[in-house]
Sequence to fold (337 residues):
Amino acid sequence: MSKITIQRVALEAGVSKGTVSRVLNARSGVNEETRVLVQSVVDRLGYVPDPGARQLARRGRHVIGLMLDDDLRRGGTYYGILRDALEDRFSSEGYHTQVFDSDSQDWLETPPDGIILLGVHLDDPRPSLLEKQRVPFVMIGRSLLNKAWVDVDNQGGLHDAVRHLVALGHRRIAHITGAHTGQASVQRLAGYTAGLEAAHLEVDDALIWDGRFHRARRVTRAVRRALKSGVPFTAIAAASDEMAFGAIGALEDAGMRVPWDVSVTGFDDLPIATRIGLTTARQPIQSIGKCAAELLLERMAGKAARHQLIQTNLVVRTSSAALLPVSAAMQPSSNTS
Fold:
């Protein structure tokens, strides 16, 4: 009888090997339904994890660190897809992954073989610290252009979304930003302003709303404030899908119809975007994770740092439409009795 492998458990459970590993090691990041499913498959197949591999992980050998900030940890679907891609690639090379908070220095006690930096910020101190400790690292996001990084064309993706909305006749296009210290947020804001300028449209600060990539309540409050202020707009180009979902919810709560009253676009193309018909700039999250893993394995093998910029493509769905002659958002007073 052939030995039961973690690959077979993952296949029968319909999840990644990384998810199976997290269940077996009682790690966070797996919902209860998935945890029960994986454990039932493990029990049914009689799978027994390799004790040698577990001992390696406990001694800090063959370990890859994933270092992320609190905002990204909240990133639900996006972070889950990215983490699975990283864990699948590293596990195929015999490495385990361990998550570290950006503010923690626990990893200094037993440094991992390499680290993936996620949620890179302006003036991020982590790259310098890792270099000082001689720990190979790769950034997902661009902080230092002469280091190893993989990133998506954030500016180009938002520019494409704005250009699409302009082509539909929209002229009052709002933007919901991510954190102002985040590289991705800054680049997407630059794409938004570049898109407006290319169409010879004014950049109105009243149409730039402060949000966070993975905090729907903050987005909801921002949209409600804009509606209450009476600032006219007919479209929203959000810096992430999750912010776009929050914006759509706030608009619908206010009695507005997407896309007839207000068009909305996102950035990511998360799985739920297809179900709700969100027009969005697609970034290949799995490819980003696999590419980052490859670059880190190269650095750990002593190869020179290199980087990779991955292009987005705009996926047009039903959340964006041609501007109607009269828009509820352009005339907020018409909603009052």
